[in-house]
Specification:
It is built from 21 helices and 6 strands. Strands 5-4-1-6 form a 4-stranded mixed beta sheet. The protein is of the alpha+beta class. The longest helix has 22 residues, at 5-26. The chain starts with a helix and ends in a 5-residue tail after the last helix. The protein has 3 domains: 5-172, no CATH class; 174-306, no CATH class; 325-392, no CATH class. Helix content is 56%, strand content 6%.
């Protein structure tokens, strides 16, 4: 059941307007430069209404002075703290009435459902709209100057560009402009050069530069051109400590070349590799349709490696990037040959652990699995059908 987005936007705009008016009235000598929604949180079972913080030049200067006194002068400190809600002084918690609205949105989304992420995304996008409404009202009534801006400042920074015009974004958040320039520069490179530049930050990130958090997706976007470099990482020929990420990205590209399969099989079997690396290699093999390579070695592999690998195509991880159609046959064959692993599979795939989301053409497969002799298969099928809104 969808929630009333207009009502959420109106309530959020009123919250921000009230907060700015309060600071303006209580601290008339302070220069208000902006306000922000922040501390967004939603984990599938609860949604918190965000806080509002009002930024003034005076409180920002005081915070910068305090940080400098404690840790010494730091270049760019004022810019980094300017939009850091938790660090600034004039913060306003949501009222119980506002939190009740958030609770109602959570209830309409359905805890743990496949539709929850879409509903939560709609919820988040209410706040940039509210910021725009509040900003327009506050400027029009003269409470703030025309240079004032209001934003929804989520942790990922995805809502900030939605809160502002292009000129406001470049003026107040130039790092976003830098990021776009960097994306365009990379896109213009020959794909082999692009892969070489993206590889290190994707599999062994230093968290530097304007594209923090985007390198994995950009590398997957290079498709088959990225396979040799990622396979080299999996084989520990380069960037050995990045083998987990490299295995996962190969699964997301989802092209089962002999080079890919050989590298992942080697890592899965390598007794010198960390067990977590071996398990991710097994997972990638299963997502690439090569569960047979795990099944033939179940007795040789650590239980965690075999079980995590075979279960992964049924988990939410398989929905990242490209993936094969839903298939319960590999896990059923594993249980037939090794029934002693049933309890381990049940723990790995327990309800709430994160199941894959069904595509419409996978519904018949899930319905057929309701007749499986294995309870964990029946449970998984029932839950994903319910999440997809498909009757058994």
């Amino acid at each position: 059941m969808a929630f009333d987005t207009k009502a959420v936007v109106a309530a959020a705009a009123a919250q921000l307007v009230e907060a700015v008016r309060s600071v303006h009235e209580q601290y008339p000598t302070e220069a208000i430069y902006g306000a922000m929604f922040h501390e967004f949180y939603g984990d599938g079972t609860v949604i918190y209404w965000p806080m509002v913080t009002v930024g003034t030049e005076e409180t920002l200067a005081a915070v910068v002075a305090d940080y400098t006194a404690q840790s010494g002068a730091e270049e760019g400190l004022s810019e980094s703290l300017r939009w850091s809600g938790p660090d600034l002084t004039h913060g306003f918690d949501p009222t119980p009435e506002l939190q009740a609205r958030a609770d109602a949105v959570q209830a309409s989304a359905g805890a743990g459902s496949a539709q929850w992420e879409n509903q939560y995304d709609r919820w988040l996008r209410c706040f940039p709209k509210a910021a725009k409404q509040a900003m327009k009202q506050l400027v029009a009534e003269g409470t703030v100057s025309k240079s004032f801006v209001a934003v929804a400042a989520d942790e990922a920074g995805e809502l900030i560009p939605l809160s502002l015009t292009k000129s406001q974004l470049v003026a107040h958040f130039p790092e976003y402009d830098d990021a776009e320039r960097e994306r365009r520069r990379l896109a213009a490179l020959p794909v082999e050069e692009r892969v070489a530049e993206l590889l290190t930050e994707a599999v062994a990130p230093r968290y530097q530069g304007p594209l923090i958090g985007e390198h994995e997706g950009l590398l997957v976007g290079c498709g088959t051109a990225a396979i040799p470099a990622l396979a080299s990482v999996v084989r520990h020929e380069t960037l050995a400590r990045g083998d987990v990420v490299a295995a996962r990205l190969l699964a997301e590209i989802n092209v089962d070349t002999p080079e890919v399969i050989e590298a992942l099989d080697w890592l899965m079997r390598s007794k010198k590799a960390q067990q977590n690396s071996r398990a991710w290699a097994a997972s990638a093999l299963a997502r690439l349709g090569r569960s047979d390579l795990i099944l033939t070695r179940v007795s040789e592999l650590p239980v965690d490696v075999a079980v995590r690998g075979l279960a992964d195509p049924l988990s939410s991880f398989r929905d990242r990037g490209a993936h094969r159609p839903l298939d319960y046959a590999p896990i059923e064959r594993a249980l037939e040959r090794h029934p002693e692993l049933e309890a381990v599979f049940e723990e790995e795939l327990r309800p709430g652990s994160g199941y894959c989301a069904l595509a419409s053409d996978e519904i018949p497969t899930a319905r057929a699995a309701l007749a499986s002799r294995w309870e964990i298969v029946r449970t998984h099928a029932r839950v994903v059908l319910e999440d997809a809104g498909a009757s058994a």
